[in-house]
Design a protein that fits this description.
The chain is an alpha/beta fold. It is 42% helix and 24% strand. It is built from 13 helices and 15 strands. Strands 1, 2, 3, 4, 5, 11, 12, 13, 14 and 15 form a 10-stranded mixed β-sheet that branches. A 5-stranded mixed β-sheet has the order 8-7-9-6-10. The N and C termini lie far apart (55 Å).
């Protein structure tokens, strides 16, 4: 047979598959009704294992693994379909819906906001993108920002979460599991690092450069081109510029922003020294209370998958089955549990969509636990 004839055969088989899957879903609906009447859970792990074992025995050796993947996905689709038919709302879903109703329709403009660093920090620029007239309180570290928000000292806090060049800000991700907060907004800030030093300093005389770890990673090519120069991490790029400005040493410099040069009366020894010109850092705005403002189309959550083969796949399959766009997946070790991980998800879907509602209601079923961080929009 030629290619066209082979494709026609596949089309005919696909027609049969569609009819058979539809029939299978119809029976799944009847099973859902039975489970609802008899107060039975949707998930029956023993039954699924029996089916997978039977399918493996019926399959040819070269297709056995493909069949297992196919039926695992079909189980996820079937459970999602049954859960939707049962129409059970989770406690978290009700909390989210109540928050949507109680949150003001306009994002606040005049509030107290916690930022890590000092005047001139990139977190300040992110804060000014999100708020019209913020009153900024500077904290020494990221944990101080979380604590200021949790204690009510500041209504909101600004934190960097990832960079397009250096990746995720791991310290922030780890702190996210320890503190109670919600994400209410995000934004991206264009990062342009410059090498700053005291007035009159020459590049050839610099023997030590200070900056934040992320900035150092983002400028690795430039730093590697220098000889006999020590690179030292500090809390923040603006803190580095302030340290250089206040130091008695004339042989030090800072990787910081151009605005910090003016702010701390420093010379720009070299402009735009980051490895990539397309360098952005994503910041999130956190609050103690759950607030969901109109237009929220991104959701962040942390999920603990069961410690068994295929558990993460099943969670991803459910997201895929619901047609939700997964835009970030980050794994972090679970404290005090060897080689077990929690997974941070960023999802792109409207909070008003049926898919969002179904996912939130099904999270308990597909995980050993989850933490909902919030739904929000990104300021451009």
């Amino acid at each position: 047979m030629n290619l066209e004839e082979l494709r026609n055969n596949i089309d005919s088989i696909d027609d049969e598959i569609v009819n058979l899957v539809e029939s299978r879903m119809d029976i799944a609906a009847k099973i859902a009704a039975y489970k609802k009447e008899n107060n039975l859970p949707v998930l029956n792990s023993a039954r699924e294992r029996q089916i997978l074992s039977a399918i493996a025995k019926k399959s040819r050796p070269e297709t056995k693994n493909y069949m297992r993947v196919l039926y695992s996905l079909m189980f996820e689709l079937s459970r999602s379909y049954q859960s939707n038919l049962l129409g059970k709302n989770s406690e978290m879903f009700d909390t989210i819906m109540n928050s949507i109703e109680s949150t003001p329709k306009l994002f606040p403009s005049d509030v107290q906001v916690a930022c890590q660093g000092v005047e001139g920090a990139y977190s300040q620029l992110a804060c000014e993108k999100m708020f019209k007239n913020p009153s900024i309180m500077y904290l020494n570290n990221f944990e101080g920002v979380f604590s200021a928000v949790e204690s009510g000292l500041c209504k909101y806090g600004i934190l960097p979460i990832e960079n397009s060049t250096a990746g995720s800000v791991i310290k922030v991700y780890d702190l996210m599991t320890e503190h109670n907060f919600h994400i209410v907004r995000s934004t991206r800030v264009k990062i342009n690092h410059c090498l700053l030093a005291k007035k009159g300093t020459e590049l050839s005389s610099v023997r030590e450069i200070f900056s934040h770890e992320q900035a150092i990673n983002q400028c690795s090519d430039f730093l590697n081109s220098l000889k006999d120069v020590k690179v030292t991490c500090c809390e923040n790029t603006a803190v580095a510029a302030k340290m250089v400005s206040e130091s008695d040493r004339a042989d030090i410099a800072a990787l910081s922003s151009h605005s910090c040069a003016e702010l701390y009366n420093l010379d720009v020894l070299k402009s735009v020294v980051q490895d990539s010109q397309n360098n952005y850092t994503r910041f999130v705005c956190i609050s103690k209370n759950l607030e969901i403002y109109p237009g929220a189309d991104k959701t962040s959550l942390m999920l603990i998958a069961p410690h068994k083969p295929g558990s993460l796949y099943k969670a991803l399959a459910r997201v895929y089955a619901l047609g939700i766009n997964l835009i970030k997946l980050e794994s972090r070790p679970i404290p005090d549990r060897d080689f077990e991980f929690m997974f941070y998800f960023d999802l792109e879907t409207s909070i008003y969509s049926e898919e969002f509602a179904r996912l939130i209601c099904e999270l308990d079923e597909i995980s050993d636990g989850f933490k909902y961080f919030g739904s929000y929009s990104e300021v451009i």
